[in-house]
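pinging the channel bc i need a second pair of eyes. not urgent but kinda urgent?? the chain im working w is below, pasted from the shared doc
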Amino acid sequence: MITNNASAVADGPDRDHHDTDGKLAVSKTAPPAGVLRLVQDIEDHNLLDARGYKRPLATLPGYHKGRTPKSKGRTYPPDPPSVDELSRLLLACGDRPTGLRLHALIVVLWRTGLRISEALALNESDLHADDGSIVVRSGKGGKRRVSMMDPWGWSRVQPWLKYRQSLEPGPVFCVITGPTSGTRVWSHTDVRRDLKRKAKEAGIRKRIAPHQLRHAHAVELWREGIDLLAVQRQLGHARLDVTQLYLRSISPTEVLAPIFARSGPVVSI
């Protein structure tokens, strides 16, 4: 009896053993509940990203539920960067592949006024350098439109587009490294992080965000005398009053300067 009990203990509950008929009986011991719960969480909440790496907790569904956003109630003035600041930002990008990609994205946002979501959704077939057009297939509200970019802008994005040819077909602004290089779109979060870092390297001591480049585009078009309706269509605004809000950064004296420059009346006094 003692020998049999000792043998049973040595075998343990997880070992295969023979039943009374001499047949091999497979252990039916279930995995611990914690393991099953973890596997279920991975399946339900997609804890791994497209590359198979563990996702940060802040990206999981429901993580921010009930939390007050840090930016709630805060408003940022329309303070678009100047041409000098944008030039310094472009110089800070460098000539490495990641720098070429950021350089091209800055130019597209600045010279077309696209929203960041619209720029990141561009495919290679949406760019038409021959007539300067860029097709936005799904803008705000799912609307399709065509925006234009000047020859200088096209010349500045060519280095990235040339390098892009060495990657798999996909979005224009894609990830460069890893198994999904060329096929997965560059994330909004990474764009904002890289912009912030390059602005600091360029010595720009103010907030630089993708949407500010859209404001800069609108202001420059107005200063160049482009009709406001053309600006509205370029930006994809449904209402003209929204386009006018983009011009709030222009000082009143600049807006009214043509009145000061009026010629005097030709009258006899």
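so Confidence is low (pLDDT under 50) at residues 1-20, 22-27. and Strands lie at 17-18, 24-25, 127-128, 133-136, 145-148. — does that match what u expected or am i reading it wrong
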